[in-house]
Amino acid sequence: AKTPNQLVIGTLYASSGSFATSSISSYDGLKFWAATVDRQGGVYVKALHKKVKIVIKAYNDQSSATTAATLYNQLITMDKVNVLVSDFGSVLTSVAVPIAQEHHQLLFDVTGTGASFFTKSNPYLVLTSLPTSAIWPNSLANYLVKQKTKRVAVLYDTNDFDQSQYNTLVSRLKAAHITPVYTGGVPTSTTNYAIIDHAIAASNPQAVVEFGYPNNDIAFLQSLNANGVHFPKVFTIFPGQQLQLMQQNVGVSGLANTLTYPTPPLLQYNRVNFGMPLSAFEKQFPSVEHHPVDFLTVAGYNAGLIIQKTLETSPTLTQLGMRHAVNSFSGTLNTIDGQFKIDSTGAQIGERLPVGQLIKRGNGLAVKFLQH
Amino acid sequence: MSPDYVLSVVDVTKTFGSFTALQGMSFHVKKGEILGLVGPNGSGKTTCMNVISGSYRADRGSLHFMGKNIQRTPASKLSHMGMNRTFQIPRPFKGLTVRENLQIAATFVRREAMGLEEIASFIGLEDSLDKESGMLNSTQQKLLDLGRALATGPTLLLVDELGAGMNPHELDITIERLQRLAKQGISMIVVEHLMSFVRQLTERVIVMNAGKEIFEGTLDDAVRNEEVVRVYLGGGTP
Amino acid sequence: MRNRLKAGSVLLVTLLLFAVGTHIYSNENMWFQGMVYLALAQGINILYGFTGYLPFGYVGFFGTGAYAASLYMTDFHTQPIVAILGGGATALIVGLLLSPLLRLSGAYFSIGSLAASQMIYYTVSNPALQAVTNGPYGMNLEAFYNPTASYAVMLVILALTLFTTAYLRYSRTGLALRATREDAVSAAMAGIPVVRMRIMAWLLSALIAGLVGGTFAWHISVFYPNTVFDLNVSIFAIVFTLFGGGASLLGPIIGMFVLYGLYNWIGISAPQYFQLIYGVLIVMLVLFLPNGIMSLFRKKGYDVP
Amino acid sequence: MVAYTILSGLLFGLYFSLMAIGLNLIFGVMRMVNLAHGDFIMLGAFAAFFAYTMWNMNPLVTMLVVFFLFIILGGALYYLVVPRLLRAHDPEMLSLILFFGLSQIIQALAVIAFGNNQRSIDYTALGSGTVYLFGQGFEESWVVVASVSLLAIILVSIYLYVTKLGVATRAVMSHREEAASAGISVHRVSAYAMGIGLALAAIAGVFSPFMIGSIDPTMGTDLTTTSFAIIIIGSLGNPIGTIVGGMIYGLSLMYMESYQPSWSSLVPYLLLFIILLLKPSGLLGRRMRNA
Amino acid sequence: MSQALSTCGLSSGYGPLQILWDIDFVAKSAETLVLLGSNGAGKTTFLKTLVGLIRPLSGEITCLEKRVETWSADRRIRMGISYMSELGVVPSLSIAENLTLGGYFQPNAARKTQLNAMYDRFPDLAARKRTLAGSLSGGQRKMLGIAKALMSKPAILLLDEPSAGLSPLYVTQMIELLRGLKEESVTMIIAEQNTKFLELADRVSVMENGRLSFQGNVEDLTQDDTLRHAYFGIH
Ligand SMILES: Nc1ncnc2c1ncn2[C@@H]1O[C@H](COP(=O)(O)OP(=O)(O)OP(=O)(O)O)[C@@H](O)[C@H]1O
Ligand SMILES: Nc1ncnc2c1ncn2[C@@H]1O[C@H](COP(=O)(O)OP(=O)(O)OP(=O)(O)O)[C@@H](O)[C@H]1O
Ligand SMILES: [Mg+2]
Ligand SMILES: [Mg+2]
């Protein structure tokens, strides 16, 4: 048994706590990828010159960063996994970054986009989906500027992810001589926006941008409906990523005409040269994982694809070897999630998020793209 | 202030909200004396003890113990200075054994005092040293309070209704014990409702009513005082 | 003498286990967290076991230590070890400021300390203080990251903590604390400076949590405010202490090994049911073994350290 | 803006009082610190959610059903754990741990049963109009919830301070053995109190989707701490104090959210802390003599 | 005269700890019984067992012709027993509420008249109706305790050390009060240390180490040398 006949991918997920919803989605996406390749006899691993089955070793961190730290350690030191994939989001990824670096283990980061993770000195990190949060709002800023929106209100939740969006947006707007008429940071745990709505309304804005996590977006949009406060333009992030969840909670009429960053499956990339295109994914995924398709399932699947390409390309199974392999195909890969391209720190820069508007169509919603 | 006074209380007032429990109490205790403090229920005897022993702070007035002002002295300090007390509702360290109860007092207050064994047999608990004190009955607990006070080698001992709930025989034993302590030079303030108990122990009593002193003198004179009879003793002398 | 021998050997075995543990089971983070919880449990033990004050907000000191140590490292570029001492000192000062809490008793104190820790948390994590604490965005000590050295420092802190509990278990100071716990009024009459003793226990446990927090921060090196102010940290430490039995040296050790072991064992193999099993276990413990495992030994007449 | 803030503070204050009053009742009567309080609120919330989505049941109807269900549940829970717990050395502190365990169990089961998704009820379920109070428009559902809360609190106060069962309940609160000596069936009275306490938590839960936003199985923990803050501000064991606590909390929270949103989470704890230090027994607390 | 309360072979205690051993005891209707016994003899335990606060380990309790040993305390109290414990009152209820509690099983109107009767009898209490019982002095609590016990107009009254801590005037008053009750044919069992209560006694029982060592009238007791020595001291 010199050459292994299976490869172990270690990852974490959260079955409870504040990140559970997103974490489960992206975990399901990764599992779907593994199931898909295993049905075809596994992944071709260049270093072994053969196809090898994929096994996923996953622990539940319950959304706790402290628990996650121990579990990442467990995956590296006890389970000695071949490939390490982080849990959803910045908080649960943050603890993995130094641990992976310390143990010289390459970390495939699915969605942890906190800008501070990516440094030149750490070669053990690759972000597979989403650009780092600092470049997301470019399209939004461009759109607002182009529309000559002078009175913009920006509300954000005080966490890494939303704050860097906020900072970027505000600086882009300022560069175009637009000073927001209202800015405010609220705790990520906020679930009641009624009072804040009134405060924003008092500044009489033409557009209101709310950067939050899904729960915040839901609560914010709900309170707009319930309060009868009306703003001409409203932007939130997560309808574009988790439309089904949002629709369930806010309702079609509550979401109609709001702006968002559409992502797959709302956004379809046509030049896919690796893995399933969106249409196939949408057909197969729900029957395998019994979970509706949303952006995070796509992101989880996409992480699997990047790993697959890495294994197919890398002549060795050492962690740094794999990292070099990632560099070698960076920029050439087009998946269901768009172009995969990383910079020297391992951060994703290939994906760009457009701005779209949700339009009521029949009983559901469709996207109208406004700005690429 | 005469140096003969172990304790002097001058014009002490204590209120609880709008209720005045002590109103200008003044008295003193001489060295080696047993002073009886009697009065109807709710007249403020226990409150007076609480103020002296540092459990409550007086609103007004002055307190001196062994010539030192003790108005703001915390209870723990007072026990080091040689004042200690028992409680009307006994409060031993219920989870600790009798021995530990006595030991604690003895180690923390380094004054000349009886040895542990001696105290234990003095209060009649020599056979229960390793019993958890919560298991003792209420009289035994009161005696343990006394024992703990003795372990600190007090010069002044405040005894609050030690006799309540004892039968006549036990009362006799207790009286005899307290007399022995007095012979050793320990001054005492004794609060008690049983007149026979007070009569056997004290030469001088203070009768309180509604937070005020209404009489000072011997018990025999007190028994003849009209007001004392009216508010406290009632018809027959017990 | 025999007591000292027993306590000494418990102490030694425990420390030795942590010293060589990573060679037995190489997930060193698990061992590290074990030490963290054990030290915290002993900190709770010093306060709750000996004085009866159950600090729900104990994590406040832990978080304070973590943040203070990190800020000393990042802003003043102090040596990690000095920074950790600084973290302990800061927690001590916070403890001193919060000492009026000791005027409360029972559930009031528990909840009051919880409120205090939440206050610290919401202050530290407030975006308005981003310039000082980096607000909700957490700390990054990558430049100082050194799991081996931080592991060793944690071992030393654990040793000091265990030694302190062992001392309290057998000294007259410990006896005085227990007397205070039973009846404060009587304790005062027995000559015990009740307030001073309580404050001492409170500060001691604050110091321990601060040191542990600082070391934890160094070891984990990237963290967010809710990681180091997570209420579960208090609760775990409390449950470990109660499970083993308070006012003893061995109790929290047993509690930590059994429960944290279980936590990792179930947590790793059957995660979806972990929380359920844990909850059931706690309920059973309280109902059927309210004085902890140690009470089993005591009932049999063994005097355990 | 000022008027709006004050009025919404009062509306929410009433709701917060309802949220906390059950916790206080249970603490008062049996000195049990119910750390699972928030989880019972969560269960009420899910009951409302499922009743609404599956049968389109009006939350006010759900409230009645839930109330009786939880009285039974609470009674059963009482007989299952409390008598045993009371025999221990320090029941008050142990209850803290026991109910923490219970909270873990409930959360775990809820995650298994309901999944992790955030849910919310169509906000129009309690009325979709706008109600004008002193010239300020408020969501109809807020006004409905506040009125129901007020009614519930009044009923609880009548129960405690006017009915004989209430005197018995308070006697048990004060001294179990003495109450038993007076011929009161301590267990039955306590079981009622536990049942009513949990039922009040659950009906607060039924309304939570309209007042605090979307619901999920782990929402309880924060609600427990908030409820504690409220009852301690008022004074532990004094149900009337809860109303004071709820109002103070509601008003200060709304004030901070309007003018200093980033500091608003600090409010309950800061209030709690200040009040504890100034008046350790709570605003309406009375102290007993100790020697 | 019928029996109001009797026990046969009664054993009782706290958990595994047995305190009372094999007690045969009879109180006849309208009789006043004083229960003597040194500290820790088990008087309180006995009264608590009679009223149902402690489950007996074995034996029978018969009350007003019914076997009650398996009944709960509230059921026995509703039958017409009233019990004043050593503590006597509920500390955090006001005086008025304590009295309401005493008349818990009375119809509202009857309770009101009884309440007024108590206030007439104890003007000190009437003056501070809304004061918490917990802030009263020891003796004041006793007074409230007895008033509370009388609220239910009991047929059988169990009193645990009613005079402990009472000032002489109040002791005299208490005895007068009990004498009045005796005339109203209330059956009373009084655990006491104060020998003045023997004036009231129809019969005396003495308890020693958890056993009933004597039951008889007062003359017999004073004739018995050992008992006299033990309970009246050397006088
Ligand atoms: N902490 C307190 N709060 C309110 N009132 C109090 C307090 N302590 C004492 N009192 C009141 O002060 C008065 C005097 O009480 P105290 O206990 O001193 O009486 P006493 O003379 O010892 O009576 P007894 O002989 O019955 O023990 C009583 O009316 C009592 O209600
Ligand atoms: N809750 C309890 N648990 C265990 N033992 C107890 C308990 N209460 C009392 N005892 C023990 O039971 C025995 C009898 O106590 P009891 O109170 O019945 O005596 P008593 O005759 O009423 O004495 P006293 O004159 O002190 O009131 C005592 O030895 C006491 O220590
Ligand atoms: Mg008194
Ligand atoms: Mg007794």
Automatic annotation (TrEMBL), chain B:
One Pfam entry name: ABC_tran
Protein name per its UniProtKB record: ABC transporter ATP-binding protein
InterPro entries linked: AAA+_ATPase (IPR003593), ABC_AA/LPS_Transport (IPR051120), ABC_transporter-like_ATP-bd (IPR003439), P-loop_NTPase (IPR027417)
Limits of the ABC transporter domain: 7-235
CDD domains (UniProt xref): ABC_Mj1267_LivG_branched
Record's GO cellular component terms: plasma membrane
PROSITE patterns, per database record: ABC_TRANSPORTER_2
Phylogenetic placement of the source organism: Bacteria, Bacillati, Bacillota, Bacilli, Bacillales
GO MF annotation, one: ATP hydrolysis activity
Keywords, alphabetical: ATP-binding, Nucleotide-binding, Transport
Automatic annotation (TrEMBL), chain C:
Cell compartments where the protein resides: Cell membrane
Membrane topology, as annotated: Multi-pass membrane protein
Any one GO molecular function term: branched-chain amino acid transmembrane transporter activity
Source species, domain of life: Bacteria
InterPro entries tied to this protein: ABC_transp_permease, LivM-like
Membrane spanning stretches: 56-74, 80-99, 144-168, 199-221, 233-263, 275-297
CDD domains, per database record: TM_PBP1_LivM_like
Any Gene Ontology CC annotation: plasma membrane
Cited Pfam families: BPD_transp_2
Keywords in alphabetical order: Cell membrane, Membrane, Transmembrane, Transmembrane helix
Name this polypeptide is given: Amino acid ABC transporter
UniProtKB/TrEMBL annotation, chain D:
Organism domain of life: Bacteria
Subcellular location: Cell membrane
GO cellular component, one term: plasma membrane
Biological process terms in GO annotation: amino acid transport
Membrane topology classification: Multi-pass membrane protein
Alphabetical keyword list: Amino-acid transport, Cell membrane, Membrane, Transmembrane, Transmembrane helix, Transport
Keyword Transport part of the UniProt annotation: yes
Gene Ontology molecular function: any one: transmembrane transporter activity
InterPro entries membership: ABC_transp_permease (IPR001851), BCAA_transport_permease (IPR052157)
PANTHER family (alphabetical): AMINO ACID ABC TRANSPORTER PERMEASE PROTEIN (PTHR11795:SF445), BRANCHED-CHAIN AMINO ACID TRANSPORT SYSTEM PERMEASE PROTEIN LIVH (PTHR11795)
Protein's name according to its UniProt entry: Branched-chain amino acid ABC transporter permease
Organism: Ferroacidibacillus organovorans
Lineage of the organism: Bacteria, Bacillati, Bacillota, Bacilli, Bacillales
UniProtKB/TrEMBL annotation, chain E:
Key words, A-Z: Amino-acid transport, ATP-binding, Nucleotide-binding, Transport
Family recorded in the similarity comment: Belongs to the ABC transporter superfamily.
Name of the molecule in the record: ABC transporter domain-containing protein
Domain ABC transporter: 5-234
GO MF annotation, one: ATP hydrolysis activity
Keyword hit for Transport: yes
Gene Ontology terms describing biological process: L-amino acid transport
PROSITE patterns: ABC_TRANSPORTER_1, ABC_TRANSPORTER_2
Presence of keyword Transport: yes
Native organism taxonomy: Bacteria, Bacillati, Bacillota, Bacilli, Bacillales
Pfam family membership, one: ABC_tran
